[in-house]
Amino acid sequence: MGELLSGLFAIGAGIAVATGIGAGVGIGIVTGKATEAIARQPEQSGRITTTMLIGCALAETTAIYGLVISLILLPK
Amino acid sequence: MMEVINEAIAENLAPPVKVSVLGLFTVSEPVIICWVITLLLTVGAYLLTRNLKIVPSKSQVILEASIGGFNNFCEAQLGKHWRPFAPWLGTLFLFLLFSNLLGLIGVMPPTKTLSLTAALALLSMLLIYGSQMRYRGLVGGLLQFSKPLPFMVPFNLLDMFTRPLSLCMRLFGNMMAAHMVMGMIHAVVPLVVPIVFSLYFDLFDGLMQAFVFVFLTLLFTSEGIHDHE
To answer: Is the Cβ–Cβ distance between B225 and B132 less than 8 Å?
Structure first.
């Protein structure tokens, strides 16, 4: 019973890290659009870059939540 | 190979080591590291600003340029009330920078412990909502929760807790993950390969997270006190 339970915990931790997929797609879109914007208006590149960093940070949050949850599950 | 990896993971998840200070009381290791960083920053600030001159020396030029740059950055975001916020945000940035980059020299970065990032996020929360009340008055500050539309009140109240939570978890998660991945790489390939990964995980990630923490605090604060009309 104990081994089964810890196995299930490990599977749960693995599923929790799958939140990284969304973050990866999100950061990809943000960076792609930022590159397009800089190509269109190179003189605005400073402001676009800071906005992009914020977008990346916010998109990354879900992945971090998944990581924290998997860390909570892991040592069981 | 699995054993070394598991060992590296267990080492990262273990509670911080308790250290006794002069036999008087015990504190955990990250606290000591924070004290050292604070001491370094204080002494550094004293030494760098000790004898400022009208005709600046080399270090003073660099100092003035970086402080001026940071002040301009704050002013661009915060508008006319930027003055009281710039010193705190700059100090926060320097502290986070030093503690995140400690991973480069093999010391455990203190931002990898949840208690430190939670404390910093609570301070940010106090700053965001305190400044909102300070510059709009108590009633105006409370009314700000009903902007832009009255039905947004529950979401804005929820924001009050999710903002510090995500600030805290973002910093903790990133530093923890970076340190853990570096530990695993060190356990598997101790030579050459860690240098390449260290550039990303220690240097880039540390810089990035220090900047993001400060910039998000700045952005939320400016949202509270700044009208875009």
So the answer is: yes
Is B13–A71 a contact, with Cβ atoms under 8 angstroms apart?
A: yes
CB under 8 A, 24+ apart: contacts of B92-95 = B92/B120, B92/B213, B92/B214, B92/B217, B93/B210, B93/B211, B93/B214, B94/B41, B95/B37, B95/B38, B95/B41
Low-confidence ranges of chain A (pLDDT < 70): 1, 75-76
Q: Where are the alpha helices (DSSP H) in A1-76?
A: 2-17, 20-40, 45-73
Mean pLDDT of B41-57: 85
The reported pTM is 0.85
Q: What is the CATH number of domain A2-73?
A: 1.20.20.10
Asked if A67 reaches chain B (Cβ–Cβ under 8 Å), the answer is: yes
E strand or H helix at B19, and its extent?
strand B18-21
For residue B22, give how far its alpha carbon lies from the nearest alpha carbon of chain A (Å): 34
Cα gap B48→A67, rounded to integer Å: 41
In this prediction, residues B30-36 reach a mean pLDDT of 89
